[in-house]
Write a structure and sequence with these properties.
- Two copies of one chain form a homodimer.
- By secondary structure, chain A is mostly helical.
- Chain A has one domain (7-293): Farnesyl Diphosphate Synthase.
- Chain A has 16 helices and two strands.
- The first copy, chain A, has helices at residues 7-25, 35-45, 52-63, 72-90, 106-110, 112-132, 141-149, 154-164, 171-181, 183-195, 202-229, 232-235, 241-244, 250-254, 256-273, 282-293, and strands at residues 99-100, 103-104.
- A two-stranded antiparallel ribbon of chain A has the order 1-2.
- In chain A, helix 3 packs antiparallel against helix 4.
- Chain A is globular and about 45 Å long.
- The two termini of chain A are 26 Å apart.
- The interface between A and B is large, with 55 and 55 residues.
């Protein structure tokens, strides 16, 4: 797609594209599965979500001159891992949340046991896609995704979060937790997108890593702000949960004004990090702005 | 190891070997992770379990002339997937079982949320191992494991099992369910072990597939018999659960004597299938006997 297309058009096109890839990956043809389980998986994945992680993968691919065709599977895989984590997060034994992406949570719609299995099966499906993709061989895409999703990444961050209820984390601990909980999969999205190019330099990889680290943290800070300032309708999930659960957040530790300032600084840091890509970094830069300025 | 070593010695040596591989894979050095989460993962994996799946991977490798060194990662990966499935199976929203492998279930020992995350992280860890292994590239080990674990395999079988409470499955439906629920990962164990050899013929693969299909079903039939005839102490989990939950089993549909006969027939079928490997199939043949005759 031409680089003079406005961000709103580009992002809508990519969101539609990833929706198609995900629908195909979860179709009964590509994934023969018991009807109710497959329904629960599709319910949790399709037709909603901002697709931030997929957009990051596509934008990173563009920055390093890779084709979107080579990124579809990775972009879908990170969205599947994200969707599975939301299903499990919403379960009664975790955050016990009944609303997600503006509709009843998966376990409310399908029951806890089916939701648990749907999450498990979505994680497996993500690895099937990565393994089938052109990225699946040679450069460790499978390991990259596994480490980002697992105990040293997302699941590890969730475990720290569990123990943090009661406001026991300070700012550096909170930052470290989010670096794992949301940051690891955001970094993986950018790295997997970039893997599609064989022409990357080490400087390219370092620039993308700095970008991903900054926007990963900015994303979480804005999430915390929206949890306080947003409405459940606008953010598509229960607002005010963090305070109700006495969870430490960037807002509880810094105040909303200072948290907002930090998110903006991180957004600028992210943009500077990718300056080396020149015009090719346009979508990454626009995504950084979008992440900082988003209202949901 | 020499092929004249008795099965009991061979299997004990391989069990110790896989224990070491698993302990290393879950060590804080190989897997930096929050302490409590890592503890829960190790608790659920290490120091117990028959390691049937790992033994099958090693035995299949032997049949096709592959080195055990090339199979360690795959053998560990199938055990990690199995262990994660047991954690999630035991959760209150699933089978709600408080005893596993002779000790309190993971969620009893660590709480439901940590157990859920430990299972999730173990699945991811399995794919990290597969991706890092020599099998990780080229022959689709990642896809093979993902399909076996996911909605078309193990998780799909569990979903059918969920809906089956109340005795609604007939024999062919029950067989189809177990072909997914336990059979898929048993077939994957054999196939991953064999992947370590590049010298396999299509006949070899077909023989291994027939073997794995037969012993997968035999394994489940014996499980059903032990659930009725065993004690909780001997089988290391709550006995009599199937009848208490009004679940259809091979025993409830066939009676214990006929179920036993079928398991023995399947054991013989498995042994005939691998005759083409000659002496190299010794461990596979012994495993077939062990699976049929086991008391736990």
């Amino acid at each position: 797609m031409h680089s003079d297309v406005p961000f709103a058009v580009w992002s809508r096109e990519r969101q539609q594209r990833i929706e198609g890839v995900l629908a195909e990956a979860l179709s009964s043809k590509a994934m023969p599965a018991p009807h109710r389980l497959a329904e629960a998986m599709r319910y949790a994945v399709l037709g909603a979500g901002k697709r931030v992680r997929a957009l990051l993968a596509y934008a990173a691919a563009e920055a390093v001159g890779a084709d979107a065709d080579d990124v579809d599977a990775a972009a879908a895989a990170v969205e599947l891992v994200h969707a599975y984590s939301l299903i499990h997060d919403d379960l009664p034994c975790m955050d016990d949340d009944t609303v997600r992406r503006g509709k009843p949570s998966c376990h409310v719609a399908f029951g806890e046991a089916t939701a648990l299995l749907a999450g498990d099966a979505l994680q497996a499906r993500a690895f099937a896609l990565i393994g089938q993709s052109r990225l699946g061989h040679g450069e460790g895409a499978c390991v990259l995704l596994a480490d980002a999703a697992g105990a040293s990444g997302m699941a590890g961050g969730q475990a720290i979060d569990l123990d943090a209820t009661g406001g026991s984390l300070d700012l550096s601990e909170l930052t470290a937790m989010h670096r794992m909980k949301t940051g690891a999969m955001i970094r993986a999205s950018v790295r997997l997108g970039a893997l599609a190019s064989k022409r990357r330099s080490m400087d390219d990889d370092a620039a993308l890593e700095a970008y991903a680290t900054a926007i990963g943290l900015a994303f979480q800070i804005v999430d915390d702000i929206l949890d306080v300032e947003g409405t459940s309708a606008s953010i598509g999930k229960t607002a005010g949960k963090d305070a109700a659960n006495d969870k430490p957040t960037f807002v509880s530790l810094l105040g909303a004004a200072e948290a907002r300032k930090r998110a903006e600084t991180l957004g600028r840091d992210a943009r500077s990090a990718i300056a080396i890509f020149g015009k090719r970094a346009r979508r990454l830069a626009e995504l950084a702005d979008w992440i900082v300025l988003r209202k949901n």
